[in-house]
Amino acid sequence: MTPRFATNVVTFYHPDFWGLTSADAVRDWASANPEDFWDRVMEALTEAGVTGIELTFAPGDIESALRAFGSAPAFRRELAGRGLSVVSAFIADSDTPDWRRGDNLPAIVADTERRAAFLAEVGADLLVAGLPMRTTFGTRPPFFVDAAYMTRMADIAHTVGEAVSRQGVRLAFHTESNSTLWYERDIDLFMALTDPRYVWLCPDSCHIALGGGDPVAVARRHAPRIALAHWKDAVKPIDVELTIDETVFAQQQPYMTELGTGIVDWKGWADAMSRTPGAGTILIELDEAADPVAALRAGTAVARKALA
């Protein structure tokens, strides 16, 4: 089976691609012009030869697609007319009720059920979530990612996973840098505590490497539960303690790079991915590429070579 190539909409968030001066300007313009935003994204996907998209935080989110096209079926028809389709939707940590608060479970479930309903209508079956972020090292009182914490996260994941499964959608967890699902040990612990019928994994090769882990080893250990993976390269592990606040994603950016220019073992990664349930989709993730078409073409070439 020849896999389809996909990307997260964040690939298209670089201001240079839009001829704008900042990320805020891109968000403001796209919010005011959702149809024009999506039209350009779809044109670039077609030009790059990438057919799948993962929705993410604004402006490439579910709400933006609904403003632009009026409904999930209309969005699906517009994509299909260009040979495109939705693969998944990613829930950013800041866009969902806080998982650390025990009284938030009803709101968390309602939020994910709404997203799952949209995914079902656009013909996708995968909702990608993350666990909450760690706190800055040295913060008092300290926050520990221990068995008690992971057990609470597993309980929430089970409730959410079962809720979205009723709509034919699977729940998979992304291994975000500086989150509580970052280190190899975090991933192993969370996977051990969760039911494979309801909880899946979406490993990110870059983020695992940034935590000093071995992405290929993680992929091999958890292959039966990998519903999708983010193919991204890393320059080197993060070698300092970052301040974990709203700027942490920008702080991580210098450690990320285009596929084939970093430390990820793409041959090993491709081999491990070929043995997973998610083998049919290769999602190339390029956070804010100034020239997304060229970057996606280069990334798919690296992936094809690794798969050969």
Task: Characterize the structure shown.
The chain is built from 13 helices and 10 strands. It has helices at residues 15-18, 23-32, 34-48, 62-69, 72-80, 105-122, 147-165, 184-193, 205-210, 215-221, 248-252, 266-273, 292-307; strands at 4-8, 52-55, 85-90, 126-129, 170-174, 200-202, 230-231, 233-234, 256-257, 281-284. The strands form 2 sheets. Strands 6-5-4-3-2-1-10-7 form an 8-stranded parallel beta sheet. Strands 8-9 form a two-stranded antiparallel ribbon. Helix 3 (34-48) runs parallel beside helix 13, helix 5 crosses helix 6 (105-122) and helix 6 crosses helix 7 (147-165).
> Strand-and-helix sequence, N→C?
EHHHEHHEHEHEHEHHEEHEHEH
Number of strands: 10
The residue-averaged pLDDT reads 96
Residues in β-strands, percent: 5-15%
What is the approximate shape?
globular
Strand count, sense and barrel status of the largest sheet are:
8 strands, parallel
How many DSSP helices? 13
Helix/strand/pairing class, anyone? alpha/beta
Radius of gyration: 18 Å
Helix content: 40-55%
Alpha-carbon distance between the two ends:
13 Å
Strand order of the largest sheet: 6-5-4-3-2-1-10-7
Report low-confidence residues grouped into runs of 5 or more. Answer: none
